[in-house]
User: What shape does this take?
Amino acid sequence: MRGGIDLGGTKIEAIVVDDDNQVRGSAREPTPTDGGPAGVAAQMAKVLQEAAEAAGVGPGDLAGVGVGSPGDVNDEEGTVGNAGNLPDWSGTFELAKSLRDALGCPIHLGNDVQVATRAEAKLGAGADFRSLIMVAWGTGIGGGIILDGQPWIGRGAAGEIGHTVVKAGGAHCQCGRRGCLEAYAGRGSMEARARREVDQEGAQTDLFKIMEHRGRTRLTSSIWAHALERGDHLAHELIDRAVCALGVGIASAINLLDVEAVIIGGGLGVRFGEPMVERIEVAMKPHLFNDFRPPAVRVAGLGDLGGAMGAALLATR
Assistant: This one.
């Protein structure tokens, strides 16, 4: 059996799979909002231990554990740095060593969206295509690329569609630049915008009431979905803004690479599902050069487990 950990901005998901990639145990916990990299690593180890227990094994019995993490991931060095959507993670942290010491098994690291892309290409909605772009719509906006059946990572950072500029001189992005897709469509950026609208403009919204009622500290995907169901004006306005930006950013990537398919995943992408993916597809079309032959646009077939499944695939090496 192998383990997989999907490290996200709001949640940590862990699974244990067998040789046929069937899930034997799973667990999920919120990502800590404080404690820095060490606190996050401790929570990751705890969640993987829970998944292993559910599978009837101990962590030390696993052939290995793969980790899909945001930030600058270096598997050879076992480090993750500059993971801006995680608490106080501006420097470089020896994540593999920390997890290896806690779990007692080999640890493999990969970029979170790249491993999810590999899983969708092998086991999910991308299995019928030789070329695709994966767009992870969550706390940030991540991307992965498959060309001619193989992952394409460029010099190590290919796929950063969240930092495609959709409006020159536009909104501030967490990366320090302006006009990035993530500044308009990332869940973290949307929450920051919602807070400004409430605090500075006096906007009315149920978003934060729902958050408090559910005992959350951040606006999760389910909170956004619930607010939309209630007809919350601010939630609809910010989601509309995000969909427009996603249409521009994804179409620009298609114009450059001309891949066969776009897979929409991530917390928001999976939560909203097919209806929202259809809206993104409509938003793309005015910006496509080959509008007579658009790519297929699909919801991630592995759902919330795509990142963890892709991480578990790392442990087959």
Remarks:
- The chain has a mean pLDDT of 94.
- The radius of gyration is 19 Å.
- The domain at 128-301 is CATH 3.30.420.40 (Nucleotidyltransferase; domain 5).
